[in-house]
Amino acid sequence: MILFENVVKQYPTQNRPALDDVSLEVEKGEFVFLVGASGSGKSTFLRLVLKEETPNKGRVWVAGKDLGRLSNWKIPQLRRRIGTVFQDFRLLPNKTVFDNVAFALEVIGKSRGQVQRIVPEVLDLVGLEGKEHRMPDELSGGEQQRVAIARAFVNKPAILIADEPTGNLDPSTSEGIMKLLERINRTGTTVVMATHDAAIVNQMRKRVIELEQGHLVRDQSRGVYGYSR
Amino acid sequence: MQTRFVFSEVGNGLRRNLTMTVAVIITVGVSLALFGVSLLVRSQVDTMKDFWYDKVEVSIFLCNDNSETASCAGGKITEAQKEQIQADLESLKPLVQEIYFETQQEAYDRFIVQYRNSPIIDSVTVEALPESFRVKLSDPTQYDIVASAFEGRPGVEQVNDQRQFLEKFFQLLGGLQAIALVIALAMLVVTVLLIVNTMRVAAFSRRRETGIMRLVGASNFYIQLPFLAEAAIAAAVGATIATGGLVLVKIFVIDRVLAPAFQFTAFVGWEAVWAIVPILFLTGIALACLAAFLTLRKYLRV
User: Which chain A residue shows the shortest CA-CA distance from B226?
Assistant: First the structure.
């Protein structure tokens, strides 16, 4: 599903590559934790998957496509197959829960009927039934992140990318979010989650990929957060 | 494509950026109005050229007793010389369209009418004015052919082309038009810069929405469409204002002031105004969309 071949990413203003000769593969339906200190290259990895950045060397394959050969106007198609969730939720504050999720469908041109049918289903799945007409600032952090996950998942993407989704949440709320991500993973969606949350990683026992200063230093199935903490 | 969705985005955008939108509308309006006026001046010049070139004549003034030109050394023109000129003019057809001989009495009558408010008429006598051939050309620009044939010939005092006087007048109008055009172009540049800036502010204030749109895979076109539509709508409103300005100029300046004051000439009609209006709309909308598109390419990158 995601394949990195000797990927080097060097930002012009920095003297050390953000990613240095990284090769790895994530299979369809896997659940992968991406761990490492700040600046280790986790975000760069995720940005390369989304083709927000292009590598200086090496190749990136996502969902069967060689991103180096993907023309710019096809990038939106790629991103429709990838759901994204962030630490800061990134909801639209002036839209209701329903409209925030519907937004993802509307901007790719889905009909009103489809929107009316799909959005309640997804809100149901993430456990927000009955809160469709709330505004984001009326919700708790965990609920806001559920809205964000609903929006990321509403297109039924092949891959879900989560960049520290529990970074702003307390442990028990985080647990709920992890259960939700696991449920989404069980529908066949590949989940890649960057995190600093050792407790979650240790508890879930999923594949762990560790980056350190741009190098891949550990790739372990059913791994733990690490020894460095 | 969800038109309802795009329209609601456009409405939101225009409201949120109301002051900038108003600024864009006004600058577009003013600059397009100036642009329109300069186009109107040009079509006025064309109208006057059509009107006057149809009427201009080449005058061949003939010697009388008190002429002082070298070619008049023989004194007043003889009948034989007159007949020769008449015959030579006839041979220049079809360039020479009409030939009219003006007697001293006719010249005097015309002079009296033209200078009826001037004291000069008291000192002019019928004998003081020259006889002349008034020649109308099928192509007024071919004046030189007539001039070279008759200038300096014995009995001909002077060959005079009215068109040359008009040319000077038209040059003045052309200069005015050039000034209006330069101001209009400067204003259009200001407008483009203002639109660029407005779009930058708009793109910045909506970076959250556009960022999310990109993430969920909205196409570039779809992300940019509301911005382009906003620019186009603002430009269209501005062009409407400019059209109103042009209509006011036509009614109050041309029809109410200029036309009554200068009854001897023709002024542009409404068809000239209506011909300019689509140009204003196209220019305004095209410029706005182009400015917006180029800005957004930079600020709403994939």
Answer: A107
